[in-house]
Amino acid sequence: MPTTGHNNDEPLDVDGDGTVSAHDTSVLIESIRDLYESLPLAVEEICTPHPFLDVDGDGYLSEHDASFAVAEIAYMPSLAPAIGPQSPSDKQASSVVARR
Questions:
Q1: d(Cα 92, Cα 67) in Å, to the nearest integer?
Q2: Is 17 a member of any domain?
Q3: Which of 13, 12, 21 has the alpha carbon at shortest distance from 79?
């Protein structure tokens, strides 16, 4: 298992199971929530069963990793809701509504 914390073959496969799914984003967001007070945190300092939390490959776990993962998964046809294309401003509005 690589020690870099970044999956070079598939950066969005956070849990290392060989597939990209909404579960990967959930794992990433949960890890960020749990470690929020310490962020950004060098990936080699993180003790977690999930080997690839550094989605953007900068060597740190940060809020940017979650933003990157959510944005990428939103455009994956097999994972995104079948509601048609969205502009970035539509996606932001949808996420604000979803959080309420």
A1: 11
A2: no
A3: 21
Look at residue 9 in the predicted model and tell me its pLDDT.
93
Residues 6 or more apart from 50 whose CB is under 8 A from it?
14, 15, 16, 27, 28, 31
Asked if the structure places residue 35 within a domain, the reply is: yes
Report the chain (100 residues): mean pLDDT per 10 consecutive residues.
76 92 89 88 82 92 89 73 49 44
Q: CA-to-CA distance for 4 and 6, rounded, in angstroms?
A: 5
Contact 46, 5 (CB under 8 A): yes
Question: What is the extent of the structural domain holding 33?
Answer: 22-99
Give the total number of structural domains in the chain.
1
Length of the chain: 100
Do the domain assignments include residue 74? yes
